Structure formats: C-alpha cells, structure tokens
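Dear colleagues,

As part of the handover before I leave the project, I'm documenting each prediction I ran so the next person doesn't have to rerun anything. This entry is a single chain, and its sequence is reproduced below.
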Amino acid sequence: MVHVSDLISEDIESYLAAHEQKELLRFITCGSVDDGKSTLIGRMLYESHMLFDDHLAALEADSKKVGTQEGEIDFALLVDGLAAEREQGITIDVAYRFFSTDKRKYIVADTPGHEEYTRNMATGASTADVAIILVDASQGVLTQTRRHSFIVSMVGVKRIILAINKLDLVDYSEEVYNQIKQDYLEFANEALNLDEITAIPISALKGDNIVGPSENTPWYDGQSVMQYLESVEVAATSQSRAFRMPVQWVNRPNREFRGFTGLIGSGCVSKGDRIRVLPSGTESTVSRIVTYDGDLELAGAGRSVTITLEDEIDISRGDVIASADSPCGTADQFQARILWMDDSAMASGRQYLFKSNTQTTPMTLGRLKHRVDVNTLEELPAKSLEMNEIGICNISLSSRVAYDPYDDDPVMGGFVVIDRMSNNTVGMGLIDFALRRADNIHWQSMDVTKQSRAEQKSQQPRLIWFTGLSGSGKSSIANMLEKKLQSMGRHTITLDGDNASARLRAHRPWRPRRSARPREARLRGRRSLRRTTCRVR
C-alpha cells in the first residue's frame, strides 16, 4: 500500500483513535458532460495516497487497455466502474468514494453530467456540504452547468468551488479563466442562494492546483482544491439542530420491553429528556437509550438506537419523536419545490405517494404555480413538469405528517414522490412551508368529551346510520328505534334529512318563487333539475 501514516504500522489503535476524531466533509462533483469530474476525483485519490499498490497497478493496466490518455494514467477509471461507463467514457450512476488527509475525512460523490441522469446528480447533492462545479475551459458555462448549479442551490448547498478545468487545452490562459468566472458569477448572483463561490483554475489530468500551487498558473495566488476543502468551514451540522428521530420499528421482543427504534436524524437525546411524539402531540420522558453494545446516556445524529419511554403511549412506524422544547410542526398541505425525474410528465390533480423518512401517505399534486427556466432563472407559467424540470406547486396529503422546512432541517424537509401504480420514484421535493389553511384546520381540544358524556348518562356513545332509496322507510324505522331506546331510559338524538337534496339545494342557482314564473319557465326548470339530480347520483 502507498504510504499513508507511520502510525498504521507502529500503533494501529492510536491511528484509529485519531482518525475517528477527524471532522467529516461531504462534497460532490458536478457539471456538464465530459468536464472532468471523474478525473478530478481520481487525481485527488491518487494525490492523497489512498490507493493500494494493486489498485495502482490495475489502474495503469486499464489505462493502457482503454487508451483514452495515450499511454498516461486515466484517473477517471478509478470511479467509473461500470462497463458501460468505461465503454462510453461517461458517468452514469453516482459513485461514492472515501479518502482522508491529516486534517479531515471526506466522502465524495461523483455524479453524471448527462441531462438524462440529472436525477442521479440530485441524489448525490442532497447530502453534500460543498459542491465542486466543473467547467471545461474550452467550452465555457453550459446549460447543464446552470442546471446542476440550480439543483445544488435548491437542496441547500451554500458553498461552491468553481473549478475551471482543462486549462492545459487553452494554454493556461488567464483571460479565458477570468471570462468564465465572470459569466458564472453573473448567472449565480442573479438568483442562486449561495454564501460563497470560490473560483480555482485547474487541470485535473495534469494535476495543476489540485493539491498545491501550479507553476503553469503564476497569475493565480489563491488556494488549491485540497487546501480549500481542508479549511472550509462547514455549516451547522445535524448535531446542532433540534432532536428528531423518525420511528422505523416498534421493538417488542417480550411483554416486559417496548422500545422505539430508529436512526437519529438530527440533534441529540439524553436519558431523562422530555420528548413529544408527532403528529399525535403526546409527551413523555426518555427512560432508556438502548443499543446492541449497552445503554447510553447520550446519543446524537447518525446513531441507530432504541428509545424506551416512562409512559405507555401509542407510537407506530412513521411517527417522529422530537424534543418537547422545540418540536417540529405537523400539517397536511404544503408549498414545495419539485424536481421531476420520470419520463412521463407530472400530472396536476393526480394522486401519488409522499414518502419522507418513514412517513408514507397518499398525496395529491396541486396546480403548478410556475416552472423555473434553468438558463435564465425565469419563473415561467406551466401546467406540468417534464423530466428534469423544476417547479413550485402546492401538495395535499391525506393525513398530517411531521415536518420542518427543508432549509431548516433537510432530514425532515425532504421527500420523494412515488407513482402508486408502478411504485417508481418519479420526483423529489423540498418543503418550503405549510399552508396556513393546513394549520387552521385541526382537531380542537374540548373539555367536555364523549367519555365524560358517556359517564354522565351511564351509556356508551353509538351512531346508527340508516341509508336507502327515498320512501324505503328509513325515517319510520329510525322513529320506532328511538321510541324503544327512550322507553329503556337511553338518551337519543335523531337527525333526519336527505343529504343528496341538501347538496342539490346548496349548488342550485337561486330562482324566483314558482308563482311568479310562467309555465314554460317552470317546465324548463324541472328539466334542468332532473338533469342535475342525475349528475349528483
């Protein structure tokens, strides 16, 4: 293996302990087709000495076999592992690679540049802290560069490295670098929600400005790619957010133990903490935090645990256990950003499945408010979304779910859209906010409940519904039953009415009194009423 650290051979336990304490940074490489994303990652793995000797030998043999770099090492082959990727020289699926330096650990996602595989790129971007947007110096800023930048911004990545690659093809021209930088900044400053954009001139194939400064770019005095990644400050991590744990499984191995198992999505929980279960809103106290290795006093984000509570309350898969001091919200109607991923266009008014963490419920996509043009960032009117298009629309769920806005907590604010017939994932969404009418419509807590009424009257509440055709005797039977119950000392209430007629009257337009209308108008009204009655039935 290529040399990494002397501690590996001298004191492996000390090496592992030091390695465990390193901060983890997740980043993504994206951009248009053949901008050098896979080559950049391969070069970074090579320069960070994370390749085994046999891997390096296999890479050299594969490079000669493929022959894309005229005998030199093709670093893209380190991450393009599929046969179709090597044959076509493109990235199709998301490839994750791990490496580390003295200061940090890294997980990098190499994403495809083809428009057809934009959904794969969005998947990789959803967990990234930093994005490296590559631009081919000989091509400039392209449509797919803008699309990937918009998606990165949409999913909450705030820091971007604008890696202007393949400068060796333009003789390391400072003018080309400055022009591409200016074009991208004009595009990004117009509408992208970013905190920081750092432009770096590189050549992934030759290694310029990847690890250290390059002699080929004396006019550039900024950081290299690795120097930036080692020093960039990561935004608030999931550990610093409020506690959220979607319940995945109710753990009941015997009658004496009942715990709730799940992966802590954000925040920390301690024994004795007060928690709230959503969407029901019931509260309790944590009595134990159980793991395979024993009980814990404290557990944080990314840890799978089983939590037991002091009170016996109803919790099932799909519920969310949250901090009682700062609980998440619940609603069934939202405004959301939608990225459509299916070949078939999004159909407004059609029912899909909403899945967020362990919560799954039927969902209806409302009318599309607008579609975003990734080239101009204009909000364009549209009735549907085609594949890889982004839009804003309202969604309605069949039941209330626990949520946080995506910008506050990506774990609780992201969801996927599933086709109910094929069970395919057809879109991804980010919750912006709950609609006000979703908050206004809720079950109001009343002091007088059905239990208190039942105790007062010494009887159990029951509802009996008689239904049938008009004239079939519903009212007569209900009247006889009420008389019988009353003779037995039971308290009853009868509601008698024709619901269809009530709905018909509610929707029927107002007309003058019958006596004030001529006979022909009355006949027309009867024919109209007959047609309306057929529609109601």
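Confidence is low (pLDDT under 50) at residues 81-92, 499-516, 526-537. The longest strand covers residues 359-372.

All the best with the project,
I.
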